[in-house]
Amino acid sequence: NAGVTQTPKFRVLKTGQSMTLLCAQDMNHEYMYWYRQDPGMGLRLIHYSVGEGTTAKGEVPDGYNVSRLKKQNFLLGLESAAPSQTSVYFCASSPWGSDTQYFGPGTRLTVL
Amino acid sequence: GENVEQHPSTLSVQEGDSAVIKCTYSDSASNYFPWYKQELGKGPQLIIDIRSNVGEKKDQRIAVTLNKTAKHFSLHITETQPEDSAVYFCAAFDYKLSFGAGTTVTVRA
Predict the structure, then answer these.
(1) How far apart, in whole angstroms, are the C-alpha atoms of residue A39 and residue B71?
(2) B60-77 mean pLDDT
(3) Which residues of chain A have pLDDT under 70?
(4) What is the mean pLDDT of chain B?
(5) What is the distance between the alpha carbons of residues B48 and B76, in angstroms, rounded to a whole number?
(6) For the residues B45-74, what does the mean pLDDT come to?
C-alpha cells in the first residue's frame, strides 16, 4: 500500500493564479482531511470529508474549495491564490469509526 | 473550540538523557490524544496515542501520561538517540483534531 499520496510535492504560483492539489489514499478510508502547516502554528484544518460526495468546513476554509467525487481522492482547490496561502499542505485520512489519522508527505506551495 | 498549548517550543538534550514535552487542552469533551513525529520534509507520523479512559501508556522508549482533571498530557522519551531529533506535535480530539504548535527536539551526540 502506498498509503496517502499527494501531488504535486512543490509548486510556485503567482498571485491570482489557480491550482488544485490532489490527495489519494489506497486504504479504503472513509474520512479525509486537508490541513495547512505554518511556522509556529502547528496544523490547522482547512476542510474535511466524512465520505464520498460530502465535504465540510474546518478551522480555516476561506479561499479554498474541496471536492470528494471518489472515495479515494480528495481535491483541494485555490481559485485565486494569495501570498497568505503560502504554506505546506497536508492531506490525511482515517477509517470509519476511528479518530487515528494517517498523513501524506505534504505539498509545499509558494505564492508570489 | 478546542485550544491546545504545547511546551517547550524547542528542546535540546544530550544523547541518552530523557525528553519531556507537555501539552494542555481546554475542552473537557476531548477524549483522544495522539502524538505525532515529523521529520524534515515529511508528513507527521503517529508515534503513540492515549484515550481519556487511560492514565498512562508506554511503547518501548516512549510513554504518554494523561491527567484529565488538570487537562494536560505529556510525552516522555527515555534514552534519547540522534534519530529522535524531529518536531513533535501533540493533539486533542473532540470532533476534530486540534494540534499544538510543535516542539523541535534536538538530540546532541
Answers:
(1) 25
(2) 96
(3) none
(4) 95
(5) 11
(6) 94
Q: Give the strand pairing for A19-25 and A65-67.
A: unpaired
Of B95 and A28, which is predicted with more confidence? A28
Q: Within 13 Å of residue A24, how many CA atoms lie on the same side as its CB?
A: 7
- The answer to whether the CB atoms of A48 and B96 lie below 8 A apart is yes
Contact A10, A87 (CB under 8 A): no
Dist. CA A38–CA A40, nearest whole Å: 6
- Joined grid coordinates for residue B103: 516542539
CA atoms within 13 A on the CB side of A29: 27
Interface of B to A at Cβ within 8 Å reads: 1, 4, 6, 9, 32, 34, 36, 41-46, 49, 89, 93, 96-97, 99-102
Inter-chain contacts counted by CB atoms under 8 A, chains A and B: 46
Q: Report the distance separating Cα B89 and Cα A5, nearest Å.
A: 21
Compute the average pLDDT of residues B11-28.
97
B97 within 8 A of B42, measured Cβ to Cβ: no
Residue A84: helix, strand or coil by DSSP?
helix
